[in-house]
Amino acid sequence: MKKRAFTLIELIVTLAIISLISSVILIKSGLIPKLQERKEIENLQADINYCREKSLVTGYKYKINIDSNNYAIKRADDNEMVKEVYFKYIKANTKNTFVFRPTGSVEGASTIYFSSSNKKYSIIVSPIAGRIRYE
What is the set of domains in the chain, with CATH numbers? Predict the structure, then answer.
């Protein structure tokens, strides 16, 4: 009596075909670019928080300059560059500069608007506590 079963090669080929089809569907659906845009916004939000915390800890003013295609974190007293990041998937609609004081307050607090190929985002920086959230 013969028992029929799948060979290891057949299973590997089947899994390869399924993963290829899945990756094509993910790319065509636009899910990956949306995740990359969201990750870029979250990284900016984390860097704004870092700038605020660095100011609180060190006692120096730190500023973050946001342009249409990049942002830079600098120490406000001597303009020493801490970090510079270029956007790949989003674009800021306006130029903004926030200065975080050692007390935790923020100069120039406002809402930053971003756009991508098909979606709009905003990051809101509150003036008193420097709280940051995005929508």
Answer: 33-134 (3.55.40.10)
